[in-house]
Amino acid sequence: MMQFMLLFSRQGKLRLQKWYVAYQDKMKKKVARELTTAILTRKPKMCSFLEWKDLKIVYKRYASLYFCCAVEEDDNELLTLEIIHRYVELLDKYFGSVCELDIIFNFEKAYFILDELLVGGEIQETSKKSVLKAIAAEDMLQEDGRPGSGTI
Amino acid sequence: MPAVRGDGMRGLAVFISDIRNCKSKEAEIKRINKELANIRSKFKGDKTLDGYQKKKYVCKLLFIFLLGHDIDFGHMEAVNLLSSNKYTEKQIGYLFISVLVDSTSDLMKLVIKSISNDLQSRNPIHVNLALQCIANIGSKDMADAFGNEIPKLLVSGDTMDTVKQSAALCLLRLYGGAGGEPTATPSGEWTSRIVHLLNDQHMGVVTAATSLIDALVKRSPEEYKGCVSLAVSRLSRIVTASYTDLQDYTYYFVPAPWLSVKLLRLLQNYPPPDDPGVRGRLNECLETILNKAQEPPKSKKVQHSNAKNAVLFEAISLIIHSDSEPNLLVRACNQLGSFLTHRETNLRYLALESMCLLATSEFSHDAVKKHQETVINALKTERDVSVRQRAVDLLYAMCDKSNAEEIVQEMLNYLELADYSIREEMVLKVAILAEKYASDYTWYVDVILNLIRIAGDYVSEEVWYRVIQIVVNREDVQGYAAKMVFEALQAPACHENMVKVGGYILGEFGNLIAGDARSSPQVQFRLLHSKFHLCSPMTRALLLSTYVKFINLFPEIKGEIITILKSDTNLRSAEAELQQRASEYLTLANTVSTDVLATVLEEMPAFPERESSILAKLKKKSWSNDAAGASGATKSETVSTKANHVSSERSMDMGASSGAKPQSSMSLLVDVLGGEIPNGMQGNLGGFSNASMSAHEENLKKLICKNNGVLFENDLIQVGIRAEYRQNLGRLGIFFGNKTISPLTQFSPTVSCPGILAAKLLVQAKSVESQVEAGAQIQQLINVECIDDFVEYPLLTVNFVHGGSQQRHELKLPVSINKFFQATDMNSDSFFGRWKNLSGPQQEAQHIFQSQFGTDDIDGVKTKLVGFGLALLEGIDPNPDNFVGAGIVHMRGQQIGCLLRLEPNKQANMYRLTIRSSKGSVSKQLLDLLHPQF
Q: Per-domain residue ranges for chain B?
């Protein structure tokens, strides 16, 4: 299963972090720091997998963002790459050609979409249509739930 | 500012923009503190906030937290949001709880209450939100509260598919993956209903359920065995499906890659199916997957090839796991071979990794060897160090007698350019291969000297000790070794490790090359001495021993050597060790009468091959005799002769002359000068002090099955231990006894857990006084707590000063996983019932071995088993000769039940030991600890 997923920029700024295994806050910061440094120093043509402690790190860069997942010994590296890709596709569909800023300003949405794709570090739904449908249904609820729109 | 979607919160967007516009870290912190103050006052203020405001502030807090700042308030407001009837507020509340609330928090009760309300909701979206939150937190409280509810959701016919999916993964999380509490898993009627989810119409449900079943199977393989045939049928339907059949579950023209991989992974929990029909169908699936790999790609997109190859690699893993179909193994190997030159780095990496496993199968070892050239080429040309690392691993795995010379040579070549990060590991690998496959030991010597030349910094002590051991033990390479080290030392800059090996070997076998004028005694000596000043004190000490050996080998250069020994740098060295050696060797060479000198030097041993443990014992005895008659030089005549033999033997064991030689001369000095035994000498070389260290290992082994006893002992100190354990906690009293007639000062024992052990075992040691008076004993208390199962021992490092010389001993503390056993009684039915349930290949560890002590001492065996921590269950095994036992290993978060069976075969004087537990690593570790006891 996946232990955590990190999204960070080329400058090493964390944009999203999702932990499926309990780590202490201090440890989280340390892990994120170590991995961003390790990955940012790698060259483009290098392979997308790293050994790190007893975990396998799978990462891929999309535009200015790095997506990095830590999976366990018996997880499939190539398919982890495709989990990342599926997530990117979902973000892309939802935001309409997603960019880093979308994720910064709508970080809660990025979390909600991830929660539809992965639960407890395992893939829940691989169908893009189904995930988008679920998100759309949630958004519908949000619209309904709001009495009038001028409450700010 | 980009558009904010849906019900965006303007205040939040403004705040995020402000943060992004901050020019400096300080400005950012200032802005955040301002915001925190604002939110705090809002939360504390008299005005009640509406749901939207609460949501907005909670969201801001979340953002601040994600920026890396600590948040210590707002939890209550977030919990309030959970019960909001507006979905959007509820959702933010759940997000905050998942990210920020500690599972031990007092608020958890309230959270559980809200979750339980949402689980009852008729709206599946609310139910899912609640399930996701449970999965995100996954605490014990959650398991207690919902452990019964969720399985019902999972198998009920009324539940929506999406809810089933979340419920399956939520359960998986509550069972804590493979290592959680076994009690929580559903059994009996649930088993079959859960297994049958593999037949569900909805692919998403099957995918999620397969993850859950995989975890359950790891727990109780026997109970879930029915999943094998279902998984094979499901897999078969997928691999034969066309990509249009599965609609949205086809990913870039690959039908259901996630589910395929999960099914293939699930099957790796079992041996190949017994039923020939199922087995046949599975083999067909695997063949189809291999065939598809040959077909032209349906898309140029990397996603297509990744998904397709993900399935292929998983299929190959299963083929390797089964290790029973030679045809498939060879096909797999050929397929991987074609990936070795693929333009995708990722595929090359994975192919090298997978091939490592294939190399270990007897069916495919030869097929792997065909790719040797390609792999060597990868080592030379790959630009990514992680790929090169994989190539090194594969070369190591594929090495055998037939290709060892070539592979070792290639690895040596690569070592010169290798990345620093992998050098040490490579050095070890080369050294192991060279020794393992050496048919000609001159080759072995060449390889090791090359290693030192190329990567001296990375050659650990074990490696150079080992080469010396081998040279000492093999007469046929001694002359060659002497010649080679002599040549190597002539290099203008040579590594200190080379000086050590060179010094040792020339000291022993320099005479073998002294006939050649180019390597005459004087040349040898001057060559060595030219390195002397550049070396560390440790190496210099070794060289001084070599010099005194030279006095024996080459009397013609005695004068020159004595001058060196007399020089201020040695005789007045700041290093006590060097000073001591120089003065003692000098005395040895000059002061004693010529008769004695001749006898002493004659006695210098030629490192004969002997049974070392016997001599180690003898050695121990002789030293204690000496210690007993501290001032009585009279009876030490015989003792010293013995010690002399022994110490030479000892140095053979460790492959280091430095410890032994001075000692042997020392013991003679005792005789001659009638002085006190210079204990410092021995202790100082603690690392080499093989006899007491091997006795330590022996004591350690004994202390696995008992809690009190002596851990270590030499002339200076005795270390005893008394321990008590309860559940996952232990309390150890360590007793340090000073055996000498002077105090041990700067006494400091420290305990450490190296590497990953630190995360698995908590150790806390009380400090002790810094001095141990002559003949006195002090106690140190140590508390331990077992967090997770572990393999290594914690280390007790004892530093002290005796008679002016620094002593250091590194001892292993006998804290092993079995110490946290609680003996458990059970009757025959429940024992064998559980035994059957734990029959998964990963749950069992077994070893068949020759008994060291014979199989007759039944009481002795019983004592050991009980001492090991198990309840001995008598009279429940149908065979009265067998021993069975049971116990529970306590760790902080889990308890692992373990069952044991020890079956003697009296005719053959052998035992079969089997240990089963719900956690494979525990079974294995217990086995490794226990079998050397019999």
A: 1-100, 102-224, 244-321, 688-815, 818-933
**Average confidence (pLDDT) over B444-465:** 88
Q: How far apart are CA B885 and CA B821, in angstroms?
A: 12
Residue B695 class from Cβ within 10 Å (0-12 exposed, 13-18 middle, 19+ buried)? Answer: buried
Question: B878-909 burial string, b = 16+ CB within 10 Å, else e?
Answer: eeeeebbbbbbbbbeebbbbbbbbbbbeeeee
DSSP, collapsed to helix, strand or coil, labels residue B848 as strand
Give the DSSP H/E element, type plus range, for residue A60: strand A55-62
Query: Angle CA(B303)–CA(B286)–CA(B299) in degrees, nearest 5?
Result: 25
- Please answer yes or no on whether A45 and B345 come within 8 Å at the CB atom: yes
Under 8 Å between Cβ of A31 and A37: no
The rounded distance, in Å, linking the Cα atoms of B322 and B232 is 14
Render pLDDT for B612-671 as a digit per residue (tens, 0 to 9). 222 232 233 333 333 333 333 333 333 333 333 333 333 333 333 333 333 333 332 222
Instruction: Give me the CATH code for the B688-815 domain, please.
Output: 2.60.40.1230
Flag if B204 and A124 touch (Cβ within 8 Å).
Answer: yes
Contact pairs from chain A to chain B, CB under 8 Å: 187
Residues of chain B by 3-state class (helix, strand, coil), percent to 5: 60, 10, 25
Of B16, B62, B389, Cβ closest to residue A104: B16
Partner residues linked to B871 by β-bridges: B886
Distance (Å) from the alpha carbon of A33 to chain B's nearest alpha carbon: 12
Which of A91-105, B34-48, B359-373, B872-886 is predicted with the least confidence, judged by mean pLDDT?
A: B872-886
Smallest CA–CA distance from B131 into chain A, residue: A119
Q: Which residues of B touch A82 (CB under 8 A)?
A: 251, 257, 303, 306-307, 310
And the tokens for B852? 């060291």
Closest CA to B170 of B123, B199, B209: B209
- Please judge whether A109 and B5 are an interchain contact, meaning their C-beta atoms are less than 8 angstroms apart: yes
d(CA B847, CA B43): 64
Residues of A whose CB is below 8 A from B306: 78-79, 81-82
**Cβ–Cβ below 8 Å for A79 and B132:** no
Sign of CA dihedral B804, B810, B811, B817: positive
pLDDT tens for A89-141 read 999 999 998 999 999 999 999 999 999 999 999 999 999 999 999 999 988 88
Strand-strand pairing, B761-765 and B777-786: antiparallel
Nearest to B567 by CA among B538, B598, B527, B540: B540
Q: Does domain A2-145 have CATH number 3.30.450.60?
A: yes
What digits encode the pLDDT tens for the residues B790-809? 888 999 989 888 887 888 88
DSSP B744: B
Q: Does B361 touch chain A (CB under 8 A)?
A: no
CA–CA distance, B59 with B46 (Å, rounded to integer):
21
CA-CA distance, B122 to B358, in Å (whole number)? 52
User: How is residue A75 written in tokens?
Assistant: 């997880």
Question: Which residues of chain B does A86 touch, with a Cβ-Cβ cutoff of 8 Å?
Answer: 251
pTM of the model: 0.68
Contacts of B20 in chain A (CB under 8 A): 104
* Fold for the domain defined by B818-933: TATA-Binding Protein (3.30.310)
CA distance A4 to chain B (A): 11
Contacts of A105 in chain B (CB under 8 A): 1-2, 4, 13, 16
The set of residues, in sequence order, having a beta carbon less than 8 Å from that of B185 and lying 6+ positions away, is B175, B216, B219, B220
Binding residues of B: 10-11, 42, 52, 56-60
Q: Are B307 and A78 inside 8 Å of each other by CB? A: yes
Contacts of A25 in chain B (CB under 8 A): 70
